[in-house]
Amino acid sequence: MSPARRRINAYHSPYTYYGGIAAALGLVAFLALYYGTTWNPYGAWVAAWSGVTLLFYGYDKWQAVSNGRRVPKLVLHALALAGGFLGGWAGMVVFRHKVRQGEFWLVLILATLVHAGLVYVWFVG
Questions:
Q1: I need a labelling partner for 81 at 20 to 30 A (CA). Which of 25, 38, 44, 104 fits?
Q2: What pLDDT shows up at residue 99?
């Protein structure tokens, strides 16, 4: 495959596409919360990424129902691990999305435990 063809394929990759949109939305939301509220940085971070994760769960559910272009599960997992675990849990409940897939339960439990550990270290330790 030629380098030009690889570039085109990478540009149209759903990982690059949705991952880039998620990163941009997450960072903009974080900066808005960080500078627009009196929240501590970690609270702003978790709220921003949780909001983005909830949006992506809802969008993916809508795409699943309408047989459209889906958000890769790796992107959904990365969002949860980045701090959007609350949005991931909310997305499962609100949209009834990914509730039968054990992999999503495992990633959300892991992300919750990791962030609980961060809260402990940040505020207690």
A1: 38
A2: 86
